[in-house]
Task: structure prediction
Amino acid sequence: MWDRNQIAARAAKELQDGTYVNLGIGIPTLVSNYIPPGVNVTLQSENGMLGMGPFPFEGEEDPDLINAGKQTITELPQTAYFDSAQSFAMIRGGKIAMAILGAMEVSEAGDLANWMIPGKLVKGMGGAMDLVAGVGRVVVVMDHTSKHGESKVLKACTLPLTGKAVVNRIITNLGVLDVVPGGLKIVELADGVSEAELRAATEGTIVG
Result:
């Protein structure tokens, strides 16, 4: 199986040179550590930053420089700042090529649930709903099963949806799946994981 860093490294292979990309909270933030050599991407944060730099070294944090997940980050010479209205105009206007997001559940149809669990305190939807509706491609990174061993790749989501039929690719600790007509297609297996193990851990329909 892949660990969190290996999931992020695999997701980084999805990045295309010259594009604008939004990274969600959690595992997606680690993707910035694994951008392939020769691939130049501009990272956008919906709280008003274009051109995010890497995480700062300990002792060099600037509390005024944070990403949407409230983690301290650094700026680059080309970094630009703007208000939320302009940030979401970029997202809603289709200027962001890809979003790499975490998820609680994904369905075989590409439905995404990643913002709340009923009964638990949440801060709000954030930019997730706008991102899945406005970007060109949505890649989800997450653990394949819950802590209780239950599949998070489902026939139908049970949690409140962020968007319907919005996910293109799912990268988990067990492998890579694409959302295709009729269900999910296995693209790649994680190290040491068999196809039978991935199928057994997936409630959603795997075609082919």
